[in-house]
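Request: Show me your protein:
***
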Amino acid sequence: MEHRHFLLHKPHGYLSQFIYEKKRHKKLLGELYAFPEGTMAIGRLDEDSEGLLLLTTDGMMSELVRSKTIEKEYYAQVDGLITEEAIARLEAGVEIGFKGIRYTTKPCQAKKIVSLPKCIGEGRRIRDERHGPTSWVSLTLTEGKFRQVRKMTAAVGFPTLRLVRVRVGEFTLGLPAGEVREVSSFFK
């Protein structure tokens, strides 16, 4: 069987899955594109997050991409004007809660973002200026605990308001929200 691979700009409000069996209606990936049977998302973006999502029909590829050797880069819009001290703490690793225990994140790359790429777009309105300023920070990780980026920025005093994954390995977000592009493979 020839496997197929896809890049998707997951919009806000969609689950990173194809089946949801609870009573409330949720928007699912299958509503965005006619993916072939057996397609699975590699990693997840929660319903409130958006950005680059890789999908494949090859389960072995999923394991490779989720490994700790592949970098994932996120842009987080945070509450307040992030400081150099907070960025240094993020880079060094911060303590977060994970499955009921305290966990110190691995060192990562972090930097302030001055201008956003066009593919990120305006997004949904988070809030207006009356509630204070916001800023953007880039975080590049090789791990991915549950809601890790959100927990990391909150741990340094700058809660995440909007979260966009912009890169997985060599693949970057270059699609408008909701768009899909098929690729021949992810990694050699």
Q: What stands out?
A: The CA atoms of residues 87 and 110 lie 6 Å apart. The chain has a mean pLDDT of 90. Helices lie at 59-65, 84-92, 148-155. The chain has three helices and eleven strands.
